Structure formats: structure tokens, C-alpha cells
Q: What sequence folds into this?
């Protein structure tokens, strides 16, 4: 028992010692405290005490006890208490059958609860469908049924409210890829409802770039020994690898590019000069090489003996 609930119980005991009896509001507060603490057994006990004291509790108090049972998925207790409400002359409301739907754990149970709602003359509001979507979204095996019901609401009505949208989005977040979750979040915003800020921010974020996985043929094995790696460069071209790195291709250069960067060769294999200036330089170097080393000295004369 929580501290607040214990303090409330002590206050009720003080009322009784003073000769005062708790009224319906007092029992209603105690029952709500028990429901908040998840103590559905205590909530049912307090309800029985109030009824034994001759108090006629409003339907809201019954709904609080039903909600406590639904949180624990106690379907039998929910159905039994709804039967007691009929005996006590308390008319059920939409919230009553919300608890009946929320207590279910299977698709068949949801269908029976919705049928009981119709039999009681309670309209299937968006809140009732939100509970049904929440139940169907708990299990991945019921995801198709959950989406089928949601699309039926969109097509035939009543239009899904905030709780209905969030039931489907949370179910998709648990069982479906992120892309589907983001699509639902954006669709919810287009429907005029405001998704949670974090979900909306994530849905607006562009997908991260994933580099492609290299294929096996893009990772060639190593070549052989070093002597096999030497490839002669052809005259007038260069070697370039292909995409698969397994073959080599000769890339021909344009003739004007070859004429600009490569010197033509004569028949003897010598490179010919490319322009007149280079020809003059070559002629000058040839004439210089033809002159003797001692050009400025006179030739020696032979003297005759007398």
C-alpha cells in the first residue's frame, strides 16, 4: 500500500471513530487511489464495502474499478462487474465498454467485446476503436487485423482520433520497419493531428546514406609475381584499368595531343626538331662540334736546316 493510500485509509478510520460514515465521494477517492496503485483487489473490496453500507455509487466509480481490472487483463472480472451494474440499476457508458475491449488479449475477444457494445446500444466511438487497435497492436501476428480495422475507420468512420492514431503508430514502431512508422506519422499530420515532436522530427529526417556493398567481381585477386606486373607502355597511348580490375584497355590519345607532346622520329631513330627555332639550335650545335679545338692558333711551320 502506497503512502498516500495509507494516509487516506487512516483518515477514514478517524471518521469512523468520530461516528461519521464515509460517503460515496470518500469511497470513490479510495477506489481511485487503489486503481492508481494497481491494486484492483482493493478497489473491488472498497466497492463491495460501499454497496454493503447502502451507498449508491455513480457509474464513474464502477468504471474506475473496471479500468483497474482491464489493466490486469481480467476479462472475467470485467464481465462480472458489468453484470452487477445491470443488477444495481447502473447504466453503462462508453467508458464501461472501453474497459471491456481493453481487457481482451485476442482478436476473437475484441470482436466479442465490440458485439457486446452494439448489443448494449453504445455507439462505437473512436475511443472504443482506439482500445481495439491497441489490443490488436500488441502482437505482431495481429498486425494485419489492426491495419485492416484502421483503414476501415478511415474509409467508413468514425475518423480515428489522436489515441487511435497513436495506437497504430506504436504498434508499427514495435513490429514494422521504420519507413512504415514514418509514413504513418506523416499521414497523421496530414489528417490534422499533431504527432509527438520526437516522432515528427524523426519522420522529417532524410534517410542516412548507405554506401553500396561491393560485389565479388569488384574485388579481384592479387596478381602474380612482380615480373608479371610489369606492363609495357605502348607508344601513343597509356594503360587504364577497367571497372572490374581484371583486364587492361589501351586508351588512344588524339593526334593533335600526340603532335604537341611527342617529337617525331626520322628513319635513323633520331627525334626531329618540332619548330624552326629548334632547327637553328641544332645546326648551331653541329657547326660548333665540327670546328677544331684550337681554332685560334696558327699551324706550326717546319724550319729547314741550312
A:
Amino acid at each position: 500500500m502506497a503512502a498516500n493510500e495509507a494516509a487516506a485509509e487512516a483518515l477514514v478510520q478517524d471518521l469512523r471513530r468520530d461516528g461519521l460514515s464515509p460517503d460515496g465521494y470518500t469511497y470513490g477517492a479510495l477506489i481511485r487511489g487503489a486503481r492508481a496503485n494497481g491494486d484492483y483487489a482493493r478497489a473491488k473490496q472498497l466497492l463491495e464495502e460501499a454497496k454493503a453500507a447502502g451507498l449508491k455509487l455513480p457509474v464513474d466509480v464502477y468504471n474506475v474499478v473496471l479500468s483497474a481490472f482491464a489493466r490486469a487483463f481480467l476479462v472475467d472480472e470485467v464481465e462480472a462487474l458489468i453484470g452487477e451494474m445491470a443488477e444495481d440499476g447502473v447504466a453503462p457508458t462508453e467508458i464501461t465498454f472501453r474497459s471491456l475491449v481493453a481487457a481482451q488479449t485476442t482478436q476473437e475477444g475484441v470482436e466479442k467485446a465490440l458485439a457486446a457494445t452494439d448489443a448494449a446500444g453504445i455507439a462505437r466511438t473512436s475511443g472504443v476503436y482506439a482500445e481495439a487497435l491497441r489490443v490488436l497492436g500488441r502482437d505482431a501476428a495481429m498486425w494485419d487485423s489492426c491495419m485492416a480495422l484502421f483503414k476501415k475507420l478511415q474509409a467508413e468512420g468514425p475518423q480515428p482520433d489522436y489515441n487511435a492514431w497513436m495506437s497504430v503508430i506504436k504498434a508499427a514502431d514495435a513490429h514494422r520497419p521504420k519507413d512504415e512508422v514514418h509514413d504513418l506519422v506523416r499521414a497523421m499530420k496530414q489528417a490534422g493531428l499533431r504527432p509527438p515532436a520526437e516522432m515528427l522530427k524523426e519522420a522529417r529526417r532524410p534517410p542516412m546514406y548507405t554506401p553500396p556493398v561491393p560485389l565479388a567481381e569488384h574485388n579481384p585477386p592479387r596478381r602474380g609475381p612482380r615480373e608479371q606486373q610489369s606492363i609495357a607502355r605502348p607508344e601513343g597511348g597509356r594503360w587504364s584499368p577497367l571497372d572490374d580490375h581484371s583486364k587492361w584497355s589501351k586508351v588512344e590519345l588524339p593526334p593533335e595531343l600526340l603532335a604537341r607532346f611527342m617529337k617525331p622520329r626520322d628513319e635513323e631513330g633520331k627525334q626531329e626538331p618540332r619548330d624552326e627555332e629548334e632547327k637553328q639550335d641544332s645546326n648551331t650545335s653541329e657547326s660548333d662540334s665540327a670546328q677544331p679545338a684550337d681554332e685560334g692558333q696558327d699551324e706550326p711551320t717546319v724550319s729547314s736546316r741550312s
Observations:
- The two ends are 155 Å apart (CA to CA).
- The beta strands are 237-241, 248-252.
